[in-house]
Amino acid sequence: MRRNLKFEAIRTSLAILIALAIALILIFSVSSQPLEALKEFLYGPIDSVRHFGNVIELAIPLTFTGLAISIMFKAKQFNLGAEGGFFIGAIIAMIVAIQVTLPAGIHPTVAILLGGVAGAIVLCIPAILKVRWGATELVSSLMLNYIAFFIGMYLLNYHFRDPNAGAMYSYKFPKAANLMRLIPKTRVHFGLIIVIVMIILCYYFLYQTKWGYAIRVTGENKRFAEYSGINTAKIIILAQVIGGFIAGMGGATEVLGMYKRFSWQASPGYGWDGVIVAILARNNPALVPIGALFLAYLRVGADQMARSTDVQSEVVAIIQGVIIVLIVADSFLSKYKHKLIYKEAKQNMSIKGAK
């Protein structure tokens, strides 16, 4: 276990360094002011409270979807419906915020929980299709994202659109429905506390409960799990339902924390970003916030660089692509891993020989 953790930490760190080196080369190649661009890219996200607040704000939804994807990937369920679950969770939160009258504190709590239930329902569909009819969750979840998006757009446009807004925006949320701000001069909201609680709960669930153990065993070896008496069909559904609930909570939290009314005209993309975060974290909930903060830092830095210099923010897409390719490539640093295994085996043999 320690060897694997050490190897994955080295491999991930090296992938990030290679990607950053490539980005550095690109910046110096295309920019007439490379040092200024590099400064804005690396230092811009922390040069003020407001900019660092932007990093935290962006990391909150990335952490939600990263946790959702990690739970499902841990069971080797490649459900990519977190994007649809996130979006439909936001839609349900909008409906509850507008239609229901509740006291402050209780109002967003109910909206976020119902958003989570909606997300769980969305991601449960591919799970049931797989267990019942053997349909691959990868394809069905991808298609389901579009269904969730267009259902949400229908509800917004025909039932909750404010005709006086001048655009396809919903009616304004009552103040009692919005999450409170935590840090002055930023938009960091109470969703930060919620996502920290979710990180702790997800880690505890995966590594301290029998259900979490069943999910991990099913993901590592489904046949062995079945021989051990684990109902893998239920576990497959459970992992995706939990992932959908977390994704739906994330969408609801994002809308009620960052906006006064629903204004998304397209799917925000946090579900896809959650895949990147989960890959960086190696599907470990404890590492998800680190991956989310790293990705958020890159994006805020790229935006700062694009606004202040002649380098476009798309450089982050290159960094993401290189990191993903290197991390998922099994042959990357495989010789180094074999050396670690050989070294450890040799040390164990020496210890036994001494005894």
Automatic annotation (TrEMBL):
The keyword Transmembrane is assigned to this record: yes
Key word ATP-binding present: no
A GO molecular-function descriptor: transmembrane transporter activity
Pfam entry (one): BPD_transp_2
Record key words, sorted: Cell membrane, Membrane, Transmembrane, Transmembrane helix
Coiled coil (UniProt feature): none
InterPro entries reported in the protein's UniProt record: ABC_transp_permease
PANTHER family assigned: ABC TRANSPORTER, PERMEASE PROTEIN, GUANOSINE ABC TRANSPORTER PERMEASE PROTEIN NUPP
UniProt protein name: ABC transporter permease
Species whose genome carries this gene: Vallitalea pronyensis
